[in-house]
């Protein structure tokens, strides 16, 4: 919207107006051209064709734009709803919205803005709702995309004018009013702060015999009174007039200034620039975002090539690192497997080697056992050679050996029982037996050596044996393992 | 200000339209990359096992190789043969009888009786063979040194013998000859008896 600023604002995108009678194209930038084309019918195809024609009339090609829907297409209404949760509110609004459509279509596309409620109306809040048949919204947006338009947003033009005026004149919680006019109707809206209090549409156009102007002025005065009563004495602080011929708008401004002396009244555009400028000032309000009315742009699914390209790019982005990682891991895996194979090949004969080691150990143990067994059995029994040698040496020169018994004891030793003959002289016999005993004990293997006295005194009885004294010697010899 | 919209899709679902396939593809890529990582972990464990096995192989090889290079098995077999040769096997009672007589003849001992008895188990470890003592009772007359020579002669003829008990006696101390009774144990080897089957199969139970 260019006015009331001295310098004309630069429009970021174009505005495409779609109405039942006309389609208009307001180019982006500072262009003052306004393309307009008549809409041939009520179908989406007719609207799209008219949009193309309007664009061509402005000397441009389809491009980025904001779609401004007329009230004939995007119907406006107010729904009074009790305070409920958002989900329930949305479901009720969905049902109520279809009532505003002429064809009664239940599949609707809408935006709803919660409106002002006084203290005594808090239990049931009014909602201002903009409704389009979903099929129409979908078809028009598909057609626009197909023909090269890139829709950046969508608004209801009557609500957009309120946004525009509020952006320029409103402030804080002040109440204000907007008077706007379109091709076939006019609107009056009362707002406070960023909430819509109420609004009204009037069909018709301004003309010499039209009473529309008087109706609007009267409506404004009525609403101002209503607001003063509702707000306990507060005045409407500002009134914005847009879309009305400047001369007529000035007359209205004067009338309203007289009727509402505490209200600031401003017209857009202020200067007389012709009808195109008037319409341009209305359409430019579509570029203002504001609290009155939500986005009416229908979000189409992504274009197939775009979506396919996105998937392709995502796949590539995911596949490249995955492939690199996969390849790295595969290389690592192959290297590990190669090293493992090499080591296993190296250790292939382990079982055989272990079997050989076990056999060698058993063989050595077998030989050792065999040697020990041979030594044990060879040294078992009575060590007769050794004992015979010890005994004959002990008896040599001392006594005569008569009998010799050698038996093994259970402990592995040997028990000796020796009978001998010595000189009958007591001195000689004692010396002899003591010498024999000491000689036997000198052998380390003898543990006990006992000499028993003779049972007969020499010279008594058997004279034949008087030449000898018999004695018995008993000894215990330790075994090899003892 | 509160605004509600009934659009074709909400911002979340519209975002998901783009995010979901991207996440799915990213997860797929991660899966492709992750797949071999599990195998790599397995391969690393296999490699560790293989390294341990190779190290064990080297250790066993270091221990056994000198033994094998020196012909350890052949040497052990030769030693076992020589040891086995020290103890006669498969000796008949007649052979025992003759051996004692031959030894007595060589030492001029006058034998009065030879009696070949049963086997006595000295309870020694059983290897491939079993060592037993063949009891032989010998009686006769002879000098002390001749009896010792008898034992040496028998050993010299390859019949190791131990004395189990003996009795020497003479009536006239002026005589050099003793009446002797000697119980000998001839060391002999026999094949090891077959190992008994493991217990647990109770015939009574099996009959049931």
Mean pLDDT of chain A: 85
Overall, the morphology of chain B is rod-shaped
Distance between the termini of chain B: 96 Å
In DSSP terms, counting alpha (H) and pi (I) runs of 4 or more, how many helices of chain A? Answer: 11
The computed structural class of chain A is alpha+beta
Radius of gyration of chain A: 65 Å
Compute the number of helices of chain B.
5
> Helix proportion of residues of chain B, in percent?
40-55%
Unreliable residue stretches of chain B: 198-208
Mean pLDDT of chain B: 84
Secondary structure: elements and pairs:
The complex is a heterodimer of chains A (482) and B (208).
Chain A: E1 14-18, E2 22-26, E3 35-38, H1 44-57, E4 64-69, E5 75-82, H2 86-97, E6 108-114, E7 124-133, H3 134-146, E8 150-156, H4 157-169, E9 175-181, E10 185-192, E11 195-203, H5 212-230, E12 238-242, H6 246-259, E13 264-268, H7 275-284, H8 304-346, H9 350-378, H10 384-395, E14 400-408, E15 414-422, H11 426-442, E16 446-452, E17 469-477
Parallel strand pairs in A: 1-4, 4-8, 9-12, 12-13
Antiparallel strand pairs in A: 1-2, 2-3, 5-7, 6-7, 9-10, 10-11, 14-15, 15-17, 16-17
Chain B: E1 3-5, H1 11-69, H2 72-86, H3 93-106, E2 110-120, E3 129-142, H4 144-156, E4 161-169, E5 178-191, H5 203-207
Antiparallel strand pairs in B: 2-3, 3-5, 4-5
Helix pairs in contact in B: 3-4
